[in-house]
Amino acid sequence: MSVADSTIVRAACPHDCPDTCAMEVTVAEGRAVKLRGAADMPFTNGALCTKVAHYLERVYSDQRLRFPMKRVGRKGEGRFERISWDEALDTIATKFRAIAADDPRAILPYSYAGTMGLVQGESMDRRFFHRLGASLLDRTICASAGALGWKATVGASIGTDPEAVADAKLILIWGGNPVVSNVHGWRHLQEAKRRGAKLVCIDPRRSETAEKCDLHLAPWPGTDGALALAMMQVLIADDLLDHDYIARHTLGFAQLAERVRECTPEWAAPLIGLPADTIRDLAREYGRAQPSLIRLNYGLNRCAGGGMAVRNIACLPALTGAWRHAAGGALLSTSGNFPIDHHALQRPDLYPKDGRAPRRINMAFIGEALLEAQAPRIRAIYIYNSNPVAVAPDSNRVKAGFAREDLFCVVHELFQTDTADYADILLPATSQLEHRDVHGTYGHLYAVANSPAIAPLAEAKPNTEVFRLLAERMGFDDAALFDSDEQLAAAAFRVSDRRALGVTPQALAQRGWARLNLPQPFVPFAEGSFPTPSGRCEFHSSLLDAMGLDPLPAWHPPAESPVSNPVLAARYPLALITPPARNFLNTSFANLPRFRDGEGGPKLHIHPADAAARGVADGQRLRIHNDRGEFHAQAVVTDSVRRGVVVSPSVWWQKLSGDGNNANAVTSSAPTDMGGGPIFYDCLVEVVRADARA
Ligand SMILES: Nc1nc2c(c(=O)[nH]1)N[C@H]1C(S)=C(S)[C@@H](COP(=O)(O)OP(=O)(O)OC[C@H]3O[C@@H](n4cnc5c(=O)[nH]c(N)nc54)[C@H](O)[C@@H]3O)O[C@H]1N2
Ligand SMILES: Nc1nc2c(c(=O)[nH]1)N[C@H]1C(S)=C(S)[C@@H](COP(=O)(O)OP(=O)(O)OC[C@H]3O[C@@H](n4cnc5c(=O)[nH]c(N)nc54)[C@H](O)[C@@H]3O)O[C@H]1N2
Ligand SMILES: [Mo]
């Protein structure tokens, strides 16, 4: 085939990752034949990650769902029979109408970030369920604790420009593993290292990133909040402060100083499991280096004190004035920079004004929501862009909820996931190459557009299309329910006000990407101007105060640790964390041979001393268990984890893991201190050889 016969289509990587790459798809005779990172997009820089470089294997996988099906086996068994789209849509509309006649809040939409696209992720779906008057979903499963801790302090999900970090002198990589989960951001951190920056990684295990840093500090999981308090204590006691910045741009310094007076490194050391001198040295180094940068990530918000941990860390750059520098400050997420018009996309005004109070369900605790009587009890659930049976905590409860015979379950998916096995109606979804979208992101400052490159595979349909068809069958006649994907994409970003994108939707689609219309260099808080109620960095938070929470930084211990819960730790002494695997994106890719082979099966990293104490040798199959459940994994005996901590890279499909479970069989469904998030990395277990089972 000659080059003249092919075309290049601009696309966006849809996955839940801070890098949101711009891509170019080569299409020949209706088939995508090549896909690469856009060379002209500065952040993508012509490169894709190990997963998405092989995205065509996902698009053309023989595992793709090709037509609608209905369940013929038991719930969870995964046996289905082909039906037509007409039969599928009629079945759903008939059920929804009957339930809505009693109370539409008994219907629950369930979605997360299978695609981060604004069109396929939060437009027609929301409009449809708003018009129906269904229960509203609190989308808390990833970042709600940390996002609230950050917002209470800094005001919005805004921080350092990840492309401006090269001049930093000290970089703390805190609760994140950018080599695996933010590889394009890592490029810029490495550039800073080449120019002489010292990189410190704070992570309970020696991650792929920690290996490449100058210093690795391994705190006990869930104790970062104490580490940050102790750092503040040292900064204040040693007067390593920017008094001018504090006076002009912060709120509540005197109260903060009073609060942290007792939080010395000696206080923190036994909580964190690091020597007091190490903590003091870190604080002094941080206080003396300028510009200093903290690249934190959501790894540290998945524990009982996760919201406060992020909040405590977010106070640090205001104490030292690191925000004055383009390369300094801190970065958790850039999403708050994007002028996304959520109201126009989602149209909450379509919600019926019939006197019924809208009801909210927290997605993280879907097991409880399905099982425990609530008025009205959930009678139907419609799942898209998510795989809750595998990703939600305490999965035995989740599976019990989904197994309810009286629950009508619709799943719209590309693949027959663990969740799909519980569907009554299973619908085939399009991949990113088969539909239109536009994307903001949480890891850089560019919007990215996605034009359809190929026709939908077999009978697959985009999310938006299914909701338009359902709206018609429900007899809804609001024009907003029939907007095309082009119209939805055009509504995604505000184009007229001060914080507008700066390009038209047409120009964005044509070029494929656009940098936000922000000052260059972008130094968001050099002159204060924090988007908090006071306009200052709030050591004393008016937001938390109004919520009835502690308005000052505080120590919120983990729910499950030897120090905070010795009774539980006597039975389950090991702290399990289950961070992202390099070859997976949550559970996406975990069904495809290349990526499963790349991971080589579920693993448990365990310290040699912990292994020896249990008679465990490298390579043996282990049973990891607690009162909530158990899963199996193969032992990797390694000193990359500290004693007392075990690590199982995740998230595996349950039905492909050998024992029908994954790590979420043991994770807890207790909530975080704020934001109602899950505490995946706050989980005590015991480990035995699988063959030692009684
Ligand atoms: N390859 C790959 N990339 C991904 C994902 C994936 O599954 N695979 N997931 C994506 C998603 S959904 C998200 S939200 C983002 C970000 O997701 P994050 O969860 O922030 O993931 P990571 O950046 O991989 O970093 C998590 C790191 O935090 C460490 N950690 C665990 N507990 C603690 C703790 O208590 N304290 C500290 N200091 N560290 C702790 C873990 O060991 C791990 O190395 O990544 C995205 N990118
Ligand atoms: N133990 C443990 N559990 C975790 C985590 C962890 O670190 N450890 N991480 C947590 C985090 S950070 C997150 S964000 C959640 C992620 O949880 P989810 O957002 O549920 O992520 P995925 O498992 O990738 O499932 C997304 C599904 O959406 C489907 N999909 C993709 N595109 C489309 C589309 O256009 N239409 C439709 N209908 N479907 C589509 C994909 O095929 C995939 O099966 O998991 C959480 N669970
Ligand atoms: Mo996430």
Brief write-up:
The protein is of the alpha/beta class. It is 30% helix and 17% strand.
Question: How would you characterize this protein structure?
Answer:
The mean pLDDT is 97. This protein has 4 domains: 3-59, Phosphorylase Kinase, domain 1, CATH 3.30.200.210; 69-75 and 83-134 and 338-425 and 454-501, 3-Layer(aba) Sandwich (Rossmann fold); 148-332, Dimethylsulfoxide Reductase, domain 2 (3-Layer(aba) Sandwich), CATH 3.40.228; 566-692, Barwin-like endoglucanases (Beta Barrel). It has a 6-stranded mixed sheet with strand order 5-4-17-16-15-6, covered by helices on one side. Strands 23-25-24-27-22-26 form a 6-stranded mixed sheet. It has a 5-stranded parallel sheet with strand order 10-9-8-12-13. The protein is an alpha/beta fold and 694 residues long. Helix 9 runs antiparallel to helix 12. Strand 24 and strand 25 form a beta hairpin. It has 25 helices and 27 strands. Bound molecules: ligand MGD (2 copies) and molybdenum atom (MO). One ligand MGD binds at residues 16, 112-115, 120, 141-142, 384-387, 391, 412-415, 417, 429, 463, 578-580, 585-588, 650-651, 663-664, 667, 680.
